[in-house]
Amino acid sequence: MKRIFLIGYMGVGKTTAGRELARKFGLDFIDLDHFIQARFQKTISQIFEDVGETEFRNIERNMLREVGEFENVVISTGGGAPCFFDNIDYMNQAGTTIYLKAGAESLASRLNTCKDKRPLIKDKNEQELLAFVVDNLEKREPFYSKAKVIFEIDNLITREDVTEYIRRLISIL
């Protein structure tokens, strides 16, 4: 039985890397945010708007526990998931946690192109976004750094980058 949890800041490439990692290992892939959206028939943004962040984090915790019982799976979590409740400890107990780590500038650049889909950053300009990412990374790093594997992934841009990162990650696992 294999269970891998990918954690890291939003926009780092957890979903992209997770799909490829699952394919290479012959495992199922679950994006926790997509799982939540399918269950509630709403986008994450809509859930945030309807119930607020506190209740969303409760929902996220419950859904993490549900998918955390699945076997032979790669699970891509939301960026904040490891930072609330005892989620990081749960994931470390349930399987292998991999922190996909990237710098604030790289993350802010990636996020700037898709911020409309992300409720926490949708209204921020480039400078505000970078400041937000820097601040949040600082707060989240103590949780992220509890992962069993820390994997630098700053240059995940092209399909070739993904292939190379997955090759390197598989050699570590």
Strand proportion, as a percent range, falls in 5-15%
Which spans have pLDDT < 50 for at least 5 consecutive residues? Answer: none
What is the top-level CATH class? Alpha Beta
Lateral strand order in the biggest sheet: 2-3-1-4-5
Shape: globular
CATH architecture: 3-Layer(aba) Sandwich
C-alpha Rg, in Å? 15 Å
User: CATH fold name, please?
Assistant: Rossmann fold
The end-to-end span amounts to 14 Å
Series of H and E elements? EHEHHEHEHHEH
Count of helical stretches:
7
* CATH homologous superfamily classification: P-loop containing nucleotide triphosphate hydrolases
Number of domains: 1
Number of strands: 5
Describe the structure.
The chain is of the alpha/beta class and 173 residues long. It has a single domain (3-172), classed as P-loop containing nucleotide triphosphate hydrolases (Rossmann fold). It is 55% helix and 13% strand. The protein has 7 helices and 5 strands; from the N terminus they run E-H-E-H-H-E-H-E-H-H-E-H. It has helices at residues 14-25, 32-40, 44-67, 87-94, 104-112, 126-144, 159-172; strands at 3-7, 28-31, 73-76, 96-101, 149-152. Strands 2-3-1-4-5 form a 5-stranded parallel sheet. Helix 1 packs across helix 7 (159-172), helix 2 crosses helix 3 and helix 5 packs across helix 6 (126-144). It is globular and about 40 Å long. The relative contact order is 0.20. The model has no long low-confidence stretch (mean pLDDT 93).
